[in-house]
Amino acid sequence: MIPSQAQQISRLNLSNYSIHPLRAAIGVCLLCCNISPTKCFAQAIVPAARLAPAVVLAPGAPVNNDRDLAARRWVRGLIQQELHAVHSLCKLNPQQAKDLVDTIESQWKSKLASTFRSYTESNQRGGVDFEHRVENAMKAWVQASESINPEQKSTWDEELNSRNTLRQKVVIGKMISDAERKYGLTSTQMAEAEKLLLDRWKEAWWVMYRHGTTPETKFAWISPILSESQRTAGGDPGGVRQEYYTSGGATDLPSKSLNERLEVAGITSDESISIDPIAPAAPKP
Amino acid sequence: MMQSIHNSYAQRLLLIPISIALTAQFVLAQSPKSATPPTEPTISNTAEKIPRIFDRNPPEPEEEVQAPPKNAMVNFAMDPDRWIDVIYSQLGGSESTFEQFQRRRARIALNRIELICGLDEPLREKVQATADLEIQRFKTEVLTLASQAPRNPTQEEYQEFYNRIHKLTQKYQPRVLNQSQPSLWQKVLTSNLQDSQQSAIKKETDKRAEYREKTLRLETILRVSRRLGLTANQREKLEAYAQSQPENWKTFERAWQTLQSFPEKEKQNILTNEQIQELKKALETTDDLQLVVREFGEEW
Q1: Option in A163, A227, A252 nearest B227 (CB)
Q2: Contact (Cβ atoms closer than 8 angstroms) between residue A182 and residue A97
Q3: Angle at A110 between CA A104 and CA A111, to 5 degrees
Q4: For residue A183, what is the nearest residue in chain B, using CA coordinates?
Q5: Model pTM?
Q6: What's the confidence (pLDDT) of residue A114?
């Protein structure tokens, strides 16, 4: 069970939850058809009361594994870099820097809890777009900051727009390279297709790309720029694109220790804010 | 009406013991014959030779299939049909998909050349016919090879034969397409194009290759930017470096090493002090599965 859910459950009245194992027990018995429902109900009443405390024990269970810790370090690394970037672009004064770093130090865990959870629970193939999530959180912090003036905020927005433009170029470039082989595009057609795809840009394409898949360029999208013979020939189903998965490799995410405080423009977060270093759970025998 | 129904049932019930008695008499009458050894029924009609779908005992096969040796790789006979499937699976599909892919490949290339420098219809037909001929030739080669294949191969025999399969299919493997052995239709096309057409195709091919390389470069810069937290200005500066040395910026790892080996002055010109400190760190590795994409462009 994920920690936040476990904590919520522990705060609630247990009598509401004791019915769940009871229902499950009845369901199993009905399926098996070995015991009558009435008899089963009578037997299940006692275990229901015993099973309820097991739900309460969940918050105490070790939830921080290696993946969780890695995710937290990457998130802190990205936040630290974003802080440096904000300072180098917006030239924060000491007061602004202090406000921003304190806010982030106190909120980062709750704001990005879903990111750690997604990574901890994700399967091997599905990745988590740490960069995008941290970027969104940072944007919200900068926008919410009262000490940062509107000009600085707009400068930061421009930087974010520039990043998005680069992302669009990369993803659409990949899609066009695919379409080049699939439909036999010329360089002129590739330039035209780029414009068409840019008009159709979706955030989901970037997410797909970060998860390791190049979005497909649909025939209908680029058919206006194809010649008659190209339209008749259709797409090449085979293609010569080679994709495969390999285990491990260098990651492009920066990492920062959980024991180090965030800092920007030489100002670290306030000592009163707990950074609460988390030790990894002992490996199971 | 009810009366008539009762009568009919009563008649049927009476008939049952009578029919049993008659059957018993018939069996007794037949018994001396059944004591003699059973003879094979003579089949006069050829249609009766064909086993019907509901036959419980299908006829024995005419030829006794030899049992596979103990060290055989599989416990069934690898007949030529199975080998044909194995050969085409090396090319990522079946016989029909191979044929479709090769035909379409030639067609797509011709369509593109038509747009670049124009192509007359007779030449187009000639090239397409050559492509068809090449497909037929390959299919014949596959049949010949499959007929020579071992029926119950051991591991060693299979490996030995697999080398022959690899040799045959190597030319059509996507990895080496257009690189070492151009297809016959490509040779025919080259020999029939004028110099001006060929130079136009070369120019066009270079442009498309440049587009792909640019995309790869941008992708690497994006990853470096994520790792170091670069700003838009810094990315622009880095792009100029990447353009001048494209080989060093094809992968993230190589780009990282290249940046680390930059002279201090250049580093300070591009990066901030925090980023220079970050650059000194080694790249962290992850156990997650990572997608590796190999880009192959078409020369035509």
Answers
A1: A252
A2: no
A3: 65
A4: B108
A5: 0.70
A6: 87
Separation of first and last alpha carbons in chain A:
20
Partner B contacted by A62 (CB < 8 A): no
Q: Please say whether the beta carbons of B174 and A240 come within 8 A.
A: yes
Coil, strand or helix at A218: coil
**What is the predicted pLDDT for the residue at A11?**
43
Split chain A (285 residues) into runs of 10 and give each run's mean pLDDT: 43 42 46 44 42 38 69 92 94 93 92 86 68 93 93 95 95 90 91 95 87 83 91 68 59 88 90 70 58
**What pLDDT is stored for residue B197 in this prediction?**
92
Confidence of residue B174 (pLDDT cuts 50, 70, 90): low
Dist CA B153 CA B68 (whole Å): 9
Residues of A in contact with B215 (CB under 8 A): 169-170, 173-174, 176-177
Inter-chain contact A248–B288, Cβ cutoff 8 Å?
A: yes
CB under 8 Å to A19, separation ≥6 — which residues? A48
Determine the residue among B100, B111, B225, B280 to mutate to test chain A binding: the one whose Cβ has the most chain A Cβ atoms within 10 Å.
B111
A228 touches chain B (CB under 8 A): no
What is the residue whose two structure tokens read 């057409």?
Answer: B197
